[in-house]
Structures are given as C-alpha cells and as structure tokens.
Design brief:
Distance between the termini: 29 Å
Number of domains: 2
Mean pLDDT: 95
Structural class: mainly alpha
Low-confidence stretches: none
Oligomer: single chain
Order of helices and strands: HHHHHHHHEHHEH
Largest sheet: 2 strands, parallel
Helix content: 40-55%
Shape: globular
Strand order of the largest sheet: 1-2
Number of helices: 11
Number of strands: 2
C-alpha cells in the first residue's frame, strides 16, 4: 500500500488545532492558573512538552517544522546552566521532567544539539549509587511550604535507593538517543528498571504496583508499556524473566479482535486511542524479536 509523505500528517485537523494554539514565544499556555513565577515557568514548559508529545508521537512532526523549532528554542531557553529544567518543583531538581523534555526533543531530531547533550550529561551526573534516579527532594521529609521557601535545590543523597518511577522516565531519553542506547551505565539502569516491574516504588509518588498497568500515550509516567518500550530499544532480551512477565501480561490483555483494552491514565480521550496503543505495543514486541525469542 502506498503512503504519502510524512508532511501530509502535519496538515491533519487535530495537528493544526494544536499548532494554532502555540504562543508567540514558541510555548503552549498551561490551562490552569499558577501564582508562583517559578511554577508559571515550569508549567509552561510542561504544557509545551505535552503538546509537542502529541505532535511528534502521533503526527510525526520534527525539527523541520517551524513550530517545532520554535518550541525547542523555548524549552532550550528554560534550561539551566547545569543542564536541567526546573519549575514543576519550583527551584528543585527534576530528573523526571528534565528527561521527558529531552526525550521528545531527541525524537524531534535534536539529538546532536548541544543543549540535549548537556541535559543528558546532567542526568548522568545525578544518578544514585544503585545506578538509578530519584527526585532529590523526595529523599528529604519536607512539606510543600518548606519547599516553597527553598531557593537552592536539595542535593542528591546518593546512598538512598532510587525510584523506578523516576528511573523509567529518565531511561526514555537515553533509549531514544542512538549514541547512548548501549552504554554500560544505561544498561545497568535498564537492569534496575526491569527488576522492578510489577513491584511497588520506593517513594510515595505512584508507589502502588497497580500503577504499572495504568497506561499513558504519548508516554508520561513510568508504566509497563513505556518501560518495555525503553528496554526494547536498549537491546534487552524478551526472555529476561521480568520482561517476559511484562510481555505475558500484554498477551493476556489482548482481545479477540487483536486490540487491547487497557486502563488509560492519560490519552484515553482520543477516540482512536486503542489503535495508538496497539501500534506502540506491536512496535515494542517487534523490537524484542530482534533480541531473542519469546
């Protein structure tokens, strides 16, 4: 079957609707009111990431599109000198959101941009001793009022256990980048993520094992689909016991018509979501077939 150029997707009504809401500075406005200037900045970055995710993952826009270029310039302009992105947690480090932004920028074609490299190096510098990542703020017992009073980031306590919720999001950025997919430090983090499949997280954010099967697309949190997608890109074998358990879960959830009926945490409002999910699952499984047998 013949297909048209990818740019034909850029002209579809849903994509044009999103593009029409882009602001002059390249961002998209967060729909809820925020008072703190740090949160205003952070949530502007978040909404820009969210809209870029739809445009890039579903309609295959890339850096050749001027709106994507402008959005990237906006995000890069928010990057700190250290290489991270802040605001969601006020002045605190956010390896998870920093990595999520980098992932979507890499997928848009900015893998070789110096801003992306600086961000990835910052992420590597933030690892815990066990090879994974955590939100440093979560290693301290601080109330939100105390956090608001801080104007310097809490430094990582490296000896603390990592969070698979955070590690899974961070790995998505490295899994999307061809130069990092096979690096030993990334493989080690992948092993850590695989070992945590269906287990409770070490921290309060999305702690319960049930969160593994609450799926999002475009990817947002760490869930079973996003984790297996990353592990398939990192070259892991499908006969890894924890990975096999995850794949078997998707096999059991498949309906007779070939689709999947899953608990969609984000993205379920799209009437075509079951087709998007099926596509992502099939791509993930296809990658695993290149690394071993089920």
């Amino acid at each position: 079957m013949e297909t048209g150029p990818v740019t034909s997707l850029w002209e579809l009504t849903p994509a044009l609707k999103i593009l029409g809401k882009q602001q002059d500075d390249g961002s998209w406005k967060y729909p809820k009111k925020k008072e703190d200037s740090r949160e205003i900045s952070g949530y502007g970055q978040l909404e820009t990431f969210r809209q870029l995710g739809v445009l890039i993952e579903k309609y295959l826009l890339n850096k050749e599109h001027p709106s994507v270029q402008r959005a990237a310039e906006f995000l890069f302009g928010c990057q700190t000198d250290e290489g991270d992105f802040r605001g969601i947690y006020l002045d605190q480090y956010s390896p998870n959101y920093s990595a999520a932004y980098l992932e979507i920028l890499i997928k848009a074609g900015f893998a070789t941009d110096p801003h992306v490299e600086r961000g990835l190096q910052w992420l590597l510098s933030m690892r815990q001793d066990d090879g994974g990542w955590v939100i440093p703020l979560r290693t301290e017992h601080l109330r939100w009022g105390e956090v608001k009073a801080l104007h310097e980031p809490v430094q990582p306590r490296r000896q603390k256990a990592s969070s698979h919720m955070v590690t899974g999001v961070v790995l998505r950025a490295f899994a999307a980048h061809p130069d990092y997919q096979r690096k030993p430090d990334i493989t080690r983090a992948g092993e850590l993520l695989a070992s945590r499949i269906f287990k409770a997280d070490n921290y309060t954010d999305r702690k319960a094992p049930d969160y593994w099967t609450q799926i999002t697309f475009p990817f947002w949190f760490t869930d079973l689909l996003s984790a297996l997608d990353s592990l398939s890109r990192l070259g892991f074998s499908p006969d890894h016991p924890n990975i096999k358990e995850g794949i078997d879960w998707f096999v059991k959830q498949q309906k007779k018509d070939g689709s999947w009926s899953l608990h969609m945490l984000k993205g379920g409002g799209d009437v075509n979501y079951k087709y998007w999910i099926a596509l992502v699952i099939c791509r993930m499984l296809d990658r695993f077939t290149k690394h071993g047998e089920f």
